Amino acid sequence: MTTRTAPSVPQTVERAFWLLGLALFAGVVEAIAHVSTALEHPDADVAGLAGQLAVRVLVYAAVLFVMTRFRSGRAWARGVLAIGLGVFGVASLVVEPIAWMTAGNDPMAAVSGLTLDVAVIAIARLTHLVAVIAALALMFRADANRYFARR
Predict the structure, then answer these.
(1) 18-68: pLDDT as tens digits
(2) CB distance 120 to 29 below 8 Å
(3) Among 10, 15, 64, 129, which residue has the least CB neighbours within 10 Å?
(4) How far is CA 50 from CA 30, 58, 63, 120, in A?
């Protein structure tokens, strides 16, 4: 009787997995920064913030689950991540800054009045965006394609 061993995870898939983890971490950092900034105001809507955090926790948990299925070679998980993060995730990260700039705000004026909380949010968002794009590029390299085709 012969036993089959599962194919080893290609480096591109492993790297994509860790980049997605970095993106997830950056999303958590950004969420914490947004909440802490909002709570500084005396009229903060704590119930609204709690609801937003609950939604983020559910989304992040779902992404983490799908990431683990992706790493183990499930093609459906790669598709879910590509569409979910590659389309909707990237859109959610860039729509707010684009809307802010198209509203006539001056990015250079924003830099001169930069605060720590805004800097943390901007760095977290940029890290999130770059990590997702890099992970997506790795997810569809030739060795990753072969890995997912075998499963």
Answers:
(1) 999 999 999 999 999 999 988 888 898 989 999 999 999 999 999 999 999
(2) yes
(3) 64
(4) 15, 12, 20, 21
pLDDT digits (tens, 9 = 90+) for 76-131: 999 999 999 999 999 999 998 888 888 888 777 777 778 888 889 999 999 999 99
Classify burial at 115, counting beta carbons within 10 Å of its beta carbon; exposed 0-12, middle 13-18, buried 19 or more. exposed
Q: What is the pTM of this model?
A: 0.87
* Dihedral-angle region of residue 73 (phi above 0 means left; psi in -120 to 50 means alpha; beta otherwise): left
Question: What letter represents residue 108's amino acid?
Answer: M
Nearest to 120 by CA among 28, 53, 40: 28
**Is-contact 80 148, C-beta < 8 A?**
no
For the chain, what's the residue count? 151
φ/ψ (deg, to 5) at 85 = -85, -40
